Amino acid sequence: MNRIIIKGRLVRDPEMKTSASGVEICKFTVAVDRRMQKDKEKVTDFFDCTAFGNTGAAISKYITKGREILVEGRMESSKTEKDGVKRTWWGVTVDAFEFCGSKGDGQPSAPAQVIDEQSGMEQVDTEALPF
């Protein structure tokens, strides 16, 4: 099983591109704090994330630098070689995400939750919720 769930804040605004075959690709980085030991300072991990299609389009439209997001997906690696140096890159391929934090943080209104494309669930406008 290869599943990862992270919750953190976007380091910068998402970058949206379209592949040669017309698929929308959204790339962004999420900063996640973790505590080391009781009296030590926290350490921040940075996760490079990629979302495709409608999921990527929604993230690009509603999430901006500093906003909190919960991301669910799978870890994937890719290997490259440049100038004789082999490198391995690890990243999260996003299957689903949720908006976190409050609307009161000065950001535009966004749907309460976005589920993966396979479920066919619609986005929900938080203004329409009775609570």
Describe the structure.
The chain is mainly β and 131 residues long. The chain has one domain: OB fold (Dihydrolipoamide Acetyltransferase, E2P) (Beta Barrel), CATH 2.40.50. Helices cover 8% and strands 50% of the residues. It has 1 helix and 7 strands. Strands 1-3-4-6-5 form a 5-stranded mixed beta barrel. A hairpin with a 5-residue loop joins strand 2 and strand 3. The longest helix is centred in the middle third of the chain and has 10 residues. It is globular and about 50 Å long. About 5% of the residues have low confidence.
Q: Which topology does CATH recognise? A: OB fold (Dihydrolipoamide Acetyltransferase, E2P)
Tell me the domain tally: 1
Strand content: over 45%
**Quaternary structure annotation:** single chain
SS elements, strand count? 7
Mean pLDDT: 83
Question: What is the CATH homology-level superfamily?
Answer: Nucleic acid-binding proteins
Q: How many individual helices?
A: 1
Give structural attributes:
131 residues; mainly beta; OB fold (Dihydrolipoamide Acetyltransferase, E2P); 5-stranded mixed barrel
